[in-house]
Amino acid sequence: MKTMITGVRPTGSITLANYIGGIKGFVEQQYNYNSLIFIADIHGLTTYIDPQEIRNNILDITAMYMACGIDINNTALFMQSDVLEHCNLGFLMAFQCSVGELSRMTQFKAKKQSLGKNEKDMGLFIYPTLMAADILLYDAQIVPVGADQRQHIEKTRDFGERFNNIYGNTFKLPDYQIPKIGARIMNLQDPSIKMSKSALKDDKGTILMLDDIEITRKKIMAACTDSEGKVYYDEENKPGISNLISLICVVNNMTIEEANKKYKDYNYKDFKIEVADNVCKFIKGIQDKFYQYRSDEIRLKEILTAGANKARIYASKKL
Ligand code: ATP
Ligand code: MG
Questions:
Q1: Domain residues for 82?
Q2: Domain contains 198
Q3: Which of 23, 95, 155, 190 is 20 to 30 A away from residue 224, measured at CA?
Q4: Which atom of ligand 1 approaches the CA of 183 most closely?
């Protein structure tokens, strides 16, 4: 059986984009693979967050994973820092890459521009070495992620291959798996940038899975569109409308063609109402389950401990 892995950083409240890029595809396929899903708390340290908030975010994500359908009888759900083999192998991966290639990584260049007061750039710089370790440690071959992580998975392949060439066949090489619809969900207010959970607090362009659904409705109704007045998918010329089409397709399991056909006679206001109704209904269903899981912190911590014990069996052997 092949292995599948993915993760989310505890850098803020989970967005609908994180659900679409990293969680949905994973949950749908979890029984087809040896499955691992983790909270990337060490990666999260590249973004400064108050430590107490990180602890809270970790439990939120654990409950969110459960609410989204992670089955811990099948899937190891754990916290990255509970399996320190990630760091050990991450260090070894540093010997498989050059300063030049790491400094050309898109995420490094972009995030370096916006470092906050308590943030340094070294962690960002070596991000790809730790991410390679996260995946190679488990011989994972399937990695469901959003399009923003494609380059990191390609680097993971490179580092693993270089290591294999020098030291013998040690690691299986992964493939990214990017969703057909919603690979890059854009910010509702500025559809030229991706939706991100570590965006400013109260960002009107970011849909949080835990926002009050009336707030989500308002955000969708205020989404940036264009002046043409026709609903159809055209990412390049109609990024705002195309983004909303992606959202409704994902929550309703529709294809883009089906949506183009169904909404072609809608005006933007009616279309937004339709998107808001469907997205809110979908998120509300997940929220109801979330609050049930979130109310039992002891259980959430037990889940993470059990998941780490399971993950460590593979990780320590491989290391
Ligand atoms: P941060 O701003 O802290 O980096 P993020 O929203 O980018 O937050 P990550 O924890 O870095 O979230 O990524 C978690 C998963 O969500 C990854 O699989 C990533 O590819 C996916 N993802 C992030 N943003 C988007 C997006 N806009 N569209 C689709 N998938 C996304
Ligand atoms: Mg990110």
A1: 3-182+297-318
A2: no
A3: 23
A4: 29
pTM greater than 0.85 (yes/no): yes
The whole-number pLDDT of residue 220 equals 98
* Residue 186 CA, closest ligand 1 atom number: 27
Nearest-angstrom CA–CA distance, 206 and 198: 10
Q: Is residue 228 included in any domain, yes or no?
A: no
Domain count, the chain: 1
Q: Is residue 225 part of a domain?
A: no
Give the containing element (helix H, strand E) for 67. Answer: helix 51-67
What does the alpha-carbon distance between residue 251 and residue 244 come to, in Å, rounded to a whole number?
A: 11
What is the pLDDT, as a whole number, of residue 80? Answer: 98
Q: Can you say whether residue 43 is alpha, beta or left, with left for phi > 0 and alpha for psi between -120 and 50 degrees?
A: alpha
With cut-offs at 50, 70 and 90, classify the pLDDT of residue 202. confident
In a domain, 256, yes or no: no
Q: What angle do CA 300, 305, 306 make, to 5 degrees?
A: 100
Angle ∠(312,316,318) on CA atoms, nearest 5: 120
pLDDT at 199 over 90: no
Among 36, 196, 209, the mutation site with the greatest number of ligand 1 atoms within 8 A of its Cβ is: 196
Q: What is the pLDDT of residue 136?
A: 98
On average, the pLDDT of the chain sits at 97
Which ligand has an atom closest to residue 8 CA? 1
What mean pLDDT is predicted for residues 234-258? 97
Ligand 1 and 22: CB distance under 6 A? yes
Of the residues 24, 155, 197, 272, only one is catalytic, namely 197
Query: What's the mean pLDDT in 17-41?
Result: 97
Residue 58 structure tokens = 């970790």
Residue 18 Cβ < 6 Å to ligand 1 = yes
Select which of 24, 155, 194, 272 is catalytic: 194
Q: 15 CB less than 6 Å from ligand 1?
A: yes
- Residue 12's domain is classified under what CATH number? 3.40.50.620
Closest Cα to atom 13 of ligand 1: 8
